[in-house]
Specification:
single chain, 197 residues, Rossmann fold, 3-stranded parallel β-sheet, elongated
Amino acid sequence: MVVVDQPLLPKVPFVGIDDRAVARTCGQHLKDLGHQNVAIVTFQLGSDEHCGPIDRKRLKGICFDASGPGFSGMIWEYSHSNEESGRTAAEGIFKSEPRPTAILATSDRLAIGVIETAVDHQLRVPQDLAVVGFDDIPAAKLITPQLTTVHQPMAEKGRSAVSMLLKENSQLRVKLPAKLIIRDSTAVQAIRKNSSK
């Protein structure tokens, strides 16, 4: 048996990415662009016993590693990783005062729902709201604006898992590279300030 992504089991071969590190990159990207009030939309967390390892690592990377002076955020949890949950989260976030200037979703489908709702509220992405997703699914390049997101090597995960099953790779833990793909849904926070003058 080989596990891909989760759960991480003792002595069972595993293939995945460094979710915490790449999530830290996402948070830092928004911070570097000038965003200080960031909302996070994620899968339902609950207690550690019920929260998936991937969710915890991504959240820790965003909240703890990329935080610090001048960076704060709220966390919105939903049981499904789909566009409808993203839309529901956005409706609540847009009522917040002050409204966050950026939303970081732990999946692309959540992020797409956020963008669709922003359009309904006549908010411009990225001028009024920056959005970052996670996974780089095909729809990330089809939505307008194209989604800034984390690209995962999905096919390589499968190849590595098969290689481990066939005993061609004796490693117990394989972590493949993932990277932030910057597209049109993020921009410098100063743009919003200038556009409001």
